[in-house]
């Protein structure tokens, strides 16, 4: 019992919810839990997928430098977060990625050729393989969270157990749509996974300037949904947390906010010069926590890292990527009529007239 | 303002904008710049390069990533004695702030009978043609010229950009200052080093001619001038290119004088055709100078389609060829 308002206020506990960082594999490659089963076959497959994503990313940067694609948003450093999360989905689930989430989309089934087409400035680079619910990358920040809520809500209304995942970054949590998404998800108990890759930067703005909150996971608290903070460079931890959130959502127990703490080594996009805003030596320090290196350390400790097998895989991936490059570069010219043909199901009279005029002009 | 001792510099448009911002930050301690990546990074187009170092983090502010937040807090700052200059990283990302602009920035003067006002500038790079990723290339000026209480300014060269920006910052009301990205670095102009202003609401006649009037602005000035040159060389047609510079309020007098002289008008804009700014110009000419027209007005605009991905964006953007054809059409339609 307190005797005055001011002493009452003094006694109020500051809201102090801890969101510890979950790890399954320590940066040195050792197991974080001694009583867990570690599925090395699964981990080997994750390793190869991360390798594939990384090689794709480096290829894309090279192509951009040679002028063979346009501005590109690299994701090196974030492979574990994207592949661990995408691997927990099943066909039929909905994926709402950003421009930096190609490791996730390729894991879920997008073709490398299509992704290259996207960065070549071709609209056909937005179209997923038939039957896969992958939306085009969301460019306006944070807008896609609400779409994921709506799409997964629809699954509930239809009596299905499919879920939706929205990918977004640390910067996105500042937009109103982030908060609206979490609140709608909470209010309607939708099967949505809000998957934040906290790579510590929104272009040049470091997270400590973006917000005063100590974590992103804690933002879930206000909406009374679960918030989980996971080491985004630990593919197994990401996968486990994601599988938990997906399972919960399928059961009808609502949305989860996952904060995957990670790092982008490179520029925001190839049009960005990170030396303007951060000391580049920090990237080299971060390499010690690298997702591929960590998994390699683990697999070596388990005695299952087979150099020859990895070399073969590297070779196969290189061929796959080269073929994808060849296919997109040999592709038919982009079709300028696409811009007229897909505005509405049926062209409006005025648009038809404009299109005819355009046809006359391009052929004259 | 002109004196023979005047210092000048050869600047690109984006450099002239930096120069204008710097002068106003130096002169007026109530000015401040807010935006995403505008401080440490100097802006994605480097328009605010060096300003953080010179003026410090209370005047040049890297904000959280939230356009509604930037404009909403700028309104509050403006209400309480500051002059915010807010940067939208691209005009295509202004939409989350639309509510703040439409419901508040432009109305507070009216709603308080002038007791409160919102003097602020919103800078927004716009337009296609720089091979940007999707959604970075919109020209939605017409969404803003529809609004009472908001001035809309679009320079086409470095000299005007600096002078108009200074006027915008000194204006007592909210001003949307749209910057044509493709013109940011494409040419240089001689720009006085000191402070000068170009008045909001005044068009500029770039070439004089008695045969055809072209009304254009921003990115479209360069193809309009090229088409005018072609018409002169090929057909001995004299085209008067009027750079509107301000869309709201419109320089009615300059437009009318030119239309009354030529009787033939071509309107060029990169934004979509339907309900585009050209529609407003046609309506204005219809109201004030219909009987001066010798032929129906011809529009060259972006199509009623989403600005396409960059591999085909050149098909969308009005070019000199299309404008030249429009000149032929407006000449021969009678
Ligand atoms: C509404 C909106 N505002 C601004 C931008 C420009 N922009 C593109 S990416 C980016 C930073 C995003 O940071 P974050 O959410 O952390 O994602 P990351 O790029 O780090 O993956 C900004 C400001 C945009 N695309 N959309
Ligand atoms: Mg980020």
Word description of this protein:
The complex is a heterodimer of chains A (364) and B (334). Chain A is of the alpha/beta class. Chain A is built from 14 helices and 9 strands. In chain A, the strands form 2 sheets. In chain A, strands 1-8-9-5-4-2-3 form a 7-stranded parallel beta sheet, sandwiched between helices. A two-stranded antiparallel sheet of chain A has the order 6-7. The model of chain A has no long low-confidence stretch (mean pLDDT 96). The model of chain B has no long low-confidence stretch (mean pLDDT 97). Chain B starts with 7 loop residues before the first strand and ends with a helix. Chain B has 334 residues and is of the alpha/beta class. The radius of gyration of chain B is 20 Å and the shape is globular. In chain B, the strands form 3 sheets. In chain B, strands 3-2-4-5-7-6-12 form a 7-stranded mixed beta sheet, with helices on both faces. Chain B has a 5-stranded mixed beta sheet with strand order 9-11-10-13-14, with helices on both faces. At the A-B interface, helix 13 and helix 14 of A face helix 3, helix 11 and helix 12 of B. The structure holds thiamine diphosphate and magnesium ion. Thiamine diphosphate sits at the interface of chains A and B.
Describe what is shown at a glance.
Chain A has 364 residues and is of the alpha/beta class.
Ordered list of secondary-structure elements with their pairings:
The complex is a heterodimer of chains A (364) and B (334).
Chain A: H1 5-11, E1 21-22, H2 40-65, H3 79-86, E2 94-96, H4 102-108, H5 112-119, E3 133-134, H6 144-157, E4 164-169, H7 176-188, E5 192-198, E6 201-202, E7 205-206, H8 207-210, E8 226-231, H9 235-251, E9 256-261, H10 281-286, H11 291-301, H12 307-330, H13 338-341, H14 349-363
Parallel strand pairs in A: 1-8, 2-3, 2-4, 4-5, 5-9, 8-9
Antiparallel strand pairs in A: 6-7
Chain B: E1 8-12, H1 13-27, E2 31-35, H2 51-55, E3 60-62, H3 67-79, E4 83-87, H4 98-105, H5 108-111, E5 121-126, H6 141-145, E6 151-153, H7 158-170, E7 175-180, E8 188-192, E9 204-207, E10 212-216, H8 221-235, E11 239-243, E12 246-248, H9 252-262, E13 265-272, H10 277-289, E14 298-302, H11 313-316, H12 320-332
Parallel strand pairs in B: 2-3, 2-4, 4-5, 5-7, 6-7, 10-11, 10-13, 13-14
Antiparallel strand pairs in B: 1-8, 6-12, 9-11
Helix pairs in contact in B: 1-7, 3-4, 8-12, 9-10
Bound molecules: thiamine diphosphate and magnesium ion (MG).
């Amino acid at each position: 019992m307190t005797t005055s308002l001011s002493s009452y206020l003094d006694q109020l506990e500051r809201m102090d919810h801890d969101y510890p960082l979950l790890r399954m594999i320590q940066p040195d490659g050792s197991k974080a839990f001694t009583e867990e089963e570690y599925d090395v076959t699964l981990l080997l497959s994750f390793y190869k997928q991360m390798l594939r994503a990384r090689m794709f990313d480096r290829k894309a940067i090279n192509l951009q430098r040679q002028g063979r694609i346009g501005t590109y948003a690299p994701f090196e450093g974030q492979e574990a977060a994207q592949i661990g999360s995408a691997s927990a989905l099943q066909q039929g689930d909905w994926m709402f990625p950003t421009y930096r989430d190609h490791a996730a989309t390729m894991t879920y089934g997008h073709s490398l050729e299509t992704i290259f087409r996207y960065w070549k400035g071709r609209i056909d680079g937005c179209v997923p393989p038939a039957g896969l619910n992958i939306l085009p990358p969301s460019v306006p920040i944070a807008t896609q969270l609400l779409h994921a809520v709506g799409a997964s809500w629809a699954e509930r209304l239809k009596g299905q157990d499919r879920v939706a995942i929205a990918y977004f970054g640390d910067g996105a949590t500042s937009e109103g749509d982030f908060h609206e998404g979490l609140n709608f998800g909470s209010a309607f108990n939708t099967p949505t996974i809000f998957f934040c890759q906290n790579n510590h930067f929104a272009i040049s703005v470091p997270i400590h300037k973006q917000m005063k909150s100590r974590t992103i996971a804690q933002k879930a608290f206000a909406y009374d949904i679960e918030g989980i903070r996971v080491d985004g460079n630990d593919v197994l931890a990401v996968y486990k947390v994601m599988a938990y959130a997906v399972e919960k959502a399928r059961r009808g127990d609502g949305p989860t906010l996952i904060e995957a703490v990670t790092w982008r080594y490179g520029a925001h996009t190839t049009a960005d010069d990170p030396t303007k805003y951060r000391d580049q030596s920090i990237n080299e320090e971060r390499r010690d926590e690298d997702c591929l290196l960590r998994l390699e350390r683990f697999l070596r400790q388990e005695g299952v890292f087979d150099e020859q097998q990895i070399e073969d895989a590297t070779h196969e991936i290189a061929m796959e990527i080269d073929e994808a490059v060849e296919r997109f570069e040999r592709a038919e010219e982009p079709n300028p009529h696409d811009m007229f043909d897909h505005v509405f199901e049926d062209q409006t009279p005025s648009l038809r007239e404009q299109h005819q005029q355009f046809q006359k002009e391009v052929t004259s | 303002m002109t004196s023979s001792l005047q210092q000048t510099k050869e600047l690109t448009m984006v450099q002239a904008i930096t120069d204008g911002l710097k002068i106003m930050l130096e002169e007026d301690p109530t000015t401040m710049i807010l935006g995403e990546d505008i401080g440490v990074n100097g802006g994605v187009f480097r328009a605010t390069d060096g300003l953080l170092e010179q003026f410090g983090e209370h005047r040049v502010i890297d904000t959280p990533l939230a356009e509604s937040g930037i404009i909403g807090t700028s309104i509050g700052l403006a209400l309480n004695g500051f002059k915010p200059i807010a940067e939208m990283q691209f005009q295509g990302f202004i939409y989350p702030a639309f509510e703040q602009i439409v419901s508040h920035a432009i109305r507070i003067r009216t709603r308080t009978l002038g007791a409160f006002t919102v003097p602020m500038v919103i800078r927004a790079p716009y337009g296609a043609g720089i091979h940007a990723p999707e959604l970075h290339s919109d020209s939605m000026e017409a969404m803003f010229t529809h609004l009472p209480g908001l001035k809309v300014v679009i320079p086409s060269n470095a000299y005007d950009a600096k002078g108009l920006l200074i006027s915008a910052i000194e204006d007592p009301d909210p001003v949307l200052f749209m910057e044509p990205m493709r013109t940011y670095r494409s040419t240089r102009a001689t720009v006085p080093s000191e402070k000068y202003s170009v008045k909001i609401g005044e068009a500029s006649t770039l070439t004089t001619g008695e045969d055809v009037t072209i009304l254009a602005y921003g990115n479209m000035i360069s193809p309009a001038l090229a088409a005018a040159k072609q018409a002169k060389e090929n057909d001995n047609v004299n085209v008067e290119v009027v750079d509107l510079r301000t869309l709201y309020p419109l320089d009615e007098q300059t437009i009318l004088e030119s239309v009354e002289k030529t009787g033939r008008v071509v309107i060029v804009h990169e934004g979509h055709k339907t309900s585009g700014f050209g529609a407003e110009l046609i309506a204005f000419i219809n109201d004030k100078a219909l009987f001066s027209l010798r032929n129906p007005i011809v529009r060259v605009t972006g199509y009623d389609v989403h600005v396409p991905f960059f591999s085909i964006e050149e098909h969308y953007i009005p070019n000199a060829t299309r404008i030249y054809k429009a000149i032929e059409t407006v000449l021969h339609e009678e």
